[in-house]
Amino acid sequence: MHEAEDLLRVENLVTRFKSVERGKWVTAVDDVSIRLAPGEMVGLVGESGCGKSTLGRSIVGLERPQSGRILLDGVDLSSLRGRALRETRRAIQYVFQDPYASLNDRQTIGETLTEALIIIGMTDREAQRRRVHTLLDQVGLPDALAERYPRELSGGQRQRVAIARSLAVEPRVLICDEPVSALDLSIRAQVMNLFLTLHKDLGVACLFIAHDLALVRQATSRTYVMYLGKIVEDASSAELYARPSHPYTQALLGSIPSADPRVEAHREPPPIFGDIPSPTNPPSGCRFRTRCPRAMEVCASGPPPRLALAPRHHASCVIAGDLYAHSHPEPHRLPMPA
Questions:
Q1: Which pick of 8, 59, 271, 324 has the fewest CB atoms within 10 Å?
Q2: In 10 A of CB 263, how many CB atoms?
Q3: Residue 165, Cβ neighbours under 10 Å: how many?
Q4: How far apart are CA 282 and CA 285, in angstroms?
Q5: How many structural domains compose the chain?
Q6: What is the pLDDT of residues 256-304, one digit of tens each?
Q7: How far apart are the C-alpha atoms of 333 and 313, rounded to whole Å?
């Protein structure tokens, strides 16, 4: 895919925070580049604390990067000011993990959605009422909920309201940060199916941040794997799950339990040692080397090369080529959400 076809491009993004340790900084996002085509749903996976949410928050403007570029339709958002920046920022909306924390409990659902409509200049009361009805209908909620407060709704209903609020400003990109992980299993699949339906019907591009690898495999066309602030592998989702070529990706996939108890009883997941290193003092060279069963001396000497293994499949590991060549040709059998 050519760059000109990309709707959203993130180039060499770096986002740092001051650490609680005096004089130290945490580089949560370190030289990250990703892209989304119009209407594409892309996954971003990794362990908690690897920088996924910070990347999403940086893209939408909730965090300020220290360097790099975020481009929408080729326009660098850092070059915009005032009204032009606000209008462009509206095209990128964020769906939070916790819908209750992201909604104002002193506003009814109707007031919450109307507030978003006012922001985009819709001031006619009747037009607002019709649009609120349409938004609720799009996310599968009855009109009567417009008069209720977030505390009166279930978790699944609140997340549907949060999605409706994001759609109110007619975005072109949704950053979905673990949008179903806080929900009960019984309703997680319902909300996920809603995302897939809206994505198909409205053509909104989505960056889907998650730790549920089976969910990402089911929902996305491409996937990025992130570890300690770095993208370590990216490919089409089918290719990534069929031929994981970074030891970290292999470990993540190997940790997924099998739905078959007989298989699970004999499963030996790839070894992964210890905890994630401190982001204030990451390992030299490859950041995964301190936990990698395949680590060698060369892994500490410098950043690993980003190898092109196949069209649109890259991995940052000195042995990625060997892992790719010897990977199993059949896709991993992942348990799908009920």
A1: 271
A2: 11
A3: 22
A4: 9
A5: 1
A6: 766 667 766 666 666 677 788 888 889 999 999 999 989 999 999 999 9
A7: 20
